[in-house]
C-alpha cells in the first residue's frame, strides 16, 4: 500500500515511511492511495475474531511492508497493557450501546493507537538505526497516552505541548508526573490551537524536521487513524444482530481523527448508516455539517476540555474525498484558510456530507444534564466528552437503528464535571490513586514558536 498527500506534492511512499514522516512534507496529510473495499464474505469471516486478530486483519491491509509475524507481535504487545480482556468492550445501557475505549494505561481512547504507535516507532528506529524526537500537541489526552507509549524507550525523546491551565487537573498530572528523562512537558501560555499550530509549523520547517528527526504522535500521523479504524469493526460485530444491519456511531469530536477513522471503516464496507459528529460549544464542525458554515471562531473553555479545538487537523483528509480526490483544490482551500478564515462548499458537496453525517452541538448545561440523567436512569457514569456524544445520539437517532456511542475517556479524568452532575466523585482506577502527591516536572513557556523551537533544540537527542 502506498501513501499520498492530500496536497499532492509528494511521491508515493510505503506505510513505514508514512509513519516516520507524520505530516506530509508538502504540508498536507498522508492517505492510502486506495481504501480497500471489503466483500461481505471477508467481513463475515471477521465477526468472531478477538480484538488483536481483528486489528491484525485490518492493519495488515494498510501496512503490507511489515512482515506478518512482526506486526502480530507489535499488536499483541500493544494491547497486553489494557486492563480489559476485550480491549474495547461494548456495554448496553437502556438501549444505548457504549463502546468503552478507556481501558488503556491513561484511561482514554488515545491509548488504543498510541500504545501501538510507541511500539511501532521503537521497531522502525531499531530497523533503521535511527533516533527520533517526538513533538506533539495535546488538549489533555493525547499527551499522556503518547508519553506512556514511549516513556523510557531507547533513542526516543518526547516533547508534549499542552495549553497551560486548560486541561483537567488529572490530565495534567498524568503527563507531568512521568519523570523518565526522555519525557519533556511544556505548558504553553495559550490554547490547544496555538500548540497545534506550533507543532505543525515545526513539522513544516523541513531542515529542522530533518535535523532532529521529528516524529508525530498526533492524528496527523496516519498510524493513529488506522489503529482507531479497528474498534469500529469490533463494535459493529458486537452490536449488529445480523451481518448487513446498519448501525450509527456517535463520536464526540475535536480534531476529527476519531470520526475520520469511522469514515474509513464505512468506506471499507462496514454497514454504517451515518456517523454522528457531536461537538461541545466549539462547534465549527457542527456548523459545517448543519449549515455549510466552515468559518473559524474563538475557542471557548468547556467541561469537555479535550474538545476545545477550532481547527480540526484531520478535516483536511475528509475534504480531500469531498473534493473528489483533487489535491490542487485541497491545497488552495487550506492555503487560503488562515487569511480567509473559511472554506466554501458547493450545495452538491453539502448534500453528500448530509448523507454521511448528522451533527449536534451540545452546550454545557446539556452535557451536565446528560451525565446526571444517564446516571439516574442506568447507574452508569459518563465522562463529559462521552456525554456530548450520547446526548447527540439520543436526540438524532429516533428510528430504532442501533446507536453506538464512543466512550472516549474514563469519568475519573474529569471529576469536577461529574461532581456537578451527580454530586459525588467517580471512583478512581488504581492508576490515578495518589497521583496528586507524586513529584512532577513541567516547563511553562509562552506559546511562541521560536521559544519552543529553542527549548526543543536544547534538549533534543
Ligand atoms: C476524551 C476525548 N474525547 C473526544 C476527543 C475528540 O477526538 P478527535 O480529536 O479524534 O476528534 C478527544 C480529543 O480530541 C478526547 O480527548
Ligand atoms: N483531544 C486531543 C487533541 C489532539 O488530538 P489528536 O487526536 O490529533 O492527537 C488530545 O487529547 O490531545
TrEMBL record:
<dbReference type="Pfam" id="PF24857">
    <property type="entry name" value="THR4_C"/>
</dbReference>
<dbReference type="GO" id="GO:0004795">
    <property type="term" value="F:threonine synthase activity"/>
</dbReference>
<dbReference type="InterPro" id="IPR004450">
    <property type="entry name" value="Thr_synthase-like"/>
</dbReference>
<keyword id="KW-0028">Amino-acid biosynthesis</keyword>
<dbReference type="GO" id="GO:0009088">
    <property type="term" value="P:threonine biosynthetic process"/>
</dbReference>
<dbReference type="InterPro" id="IPR036052">
    <property type="entry name" value="TrpB-like_PALP_sf"/>
</dbReference>
<keyword id="KW-0663">Pyridoxal phosphate</keyword>
<comment type="pathway">
    <text>Amino-acid biosynthesis.</text>
</comment>
<feature type="domain" description="Threonine synthase N-terminal">
    <location>
        <begin position="2"/>
        <end position="79"/>
    </location>
</feature>
<keyword id="KW-0456">Lyase</keyword>
<comment type="similarity">
    <text>Belongs to the threonine synthase family.</text>
</comment>
<feature type="modified residue" description="N6-(pyridoxal phosphate)lysine">
    <location>
        <position position="110"/>
    </location>
</feature>
<dbReference type="InterPro" id="IPR037158">
    <property type="entry name" value="Thr_synth_N_sf"/>
</dbReference>
<dbReference type="InterPro" id="IPR029144">
    <property type="entry name" value="Thr_synth_N"/>
</dbReference>
<dbReference type="Pfam" id="PF14821">
    <property type="entry name" value="Thr_synth_N"/>
</dbReference>
<dbReference type="GO" id="GO:0030170">
    <property type="term" value="F:pyridoxal phosphate binding"/>
</dbReference>
<dbReference type="InterPro" id="IPR051166">
    <property type="entry name" value="Threonine_Synthase"/>
</dbReference>
<protein>
    <recommendedName>
        <fullName>Threonine synthase</fullName>
        <ecNumber>4.2.3.1</ecNumber>
    </recommendedName>
</protein>
<dbReference type="InterPro" id="IPR000634">
    <property type="entry name" value="Ser/Thr_deHydtase_PyrdxlP-BS"/>
</dbReference>
